[in-house]
Amino acid sequence: MTSRRPPKPKVQSVPNAEIQKSENGAQLKLIKCRPKLDYLLRSRCRLAFVIISILAMLVVVRSGINASRGYALVATQNQTQELEQENERLRIEIAKLKSPLRIKQIAHDELGMDVPKKMYFSHE
């Protein structure tokens, strides 16, 4: 048989007890004690606060990154639009430079070339 001892009762010492006498002569013990703090709850609250703070910072950083990407996208779209306009302007300039009337005028004025009045074909 194993003998089990009953658990010892926990005795709490009262370090800040004061004894005062009341008006009728009875002694009263006034106990001043601090409320017990729940350190586990306090540490869990700290941990929750740290986690929530980190998550909030991540949200702020992510929204900042998204905003900067949006600005970069708008800048790229503006650059694309400008390049498309310049491309269209260059196509129009190419069409003007290829026109037969312009080529004929340059041949006549600058090179001294004329269209022959009579054409001769030979069959060989």
Describe the 3D structure.
The chain contains 2 helices and 2 strands; from the N terminus they run E-E-H-H. With about 120 residues, the chain is mainly α. The chain has a domain at about 40-110. Strands 1-2 form a two-stranded antiparallel sheet. The longest helix is centred in the middle third of the chain and has 59 residues, at about 40-95. The radius of gyration is 50 Å and the shape is rod-shaped. The N and C termini lie far apart (about 140 Å).
Topology:
Elements: E1 17-21, E2 27-31, H1 39-97, H2 100-109
Antiparallel strand pairs: 1-2
Features:
mainly alpha; rod-shaped
| Amount of helix | 55-70%
How would you state the average pLDDT, rounded? Answer: 83
Low-confidence stretches are none
Supply the number of helical segments.
2
Q: Give the neighbour order of strands across the main sheet.
A: 1-2
Count all strands and give the number: 2
Q: Strand-residue fraction?
A: 5-15%
Radius of gyration from the alpha-carbon trace, in angstroms: 50 Å
N- to C-terminal distance: 138 Å
The secondary structure category is mainly alpha
- List the helices and strands in order: EEHH
Basic shape: rod-shaped
Main beta sheet, described?
A: 2 strands, antiparallel
Give a short summary of the structure.
With 124 residues, the protein is mainly alpha-helical.
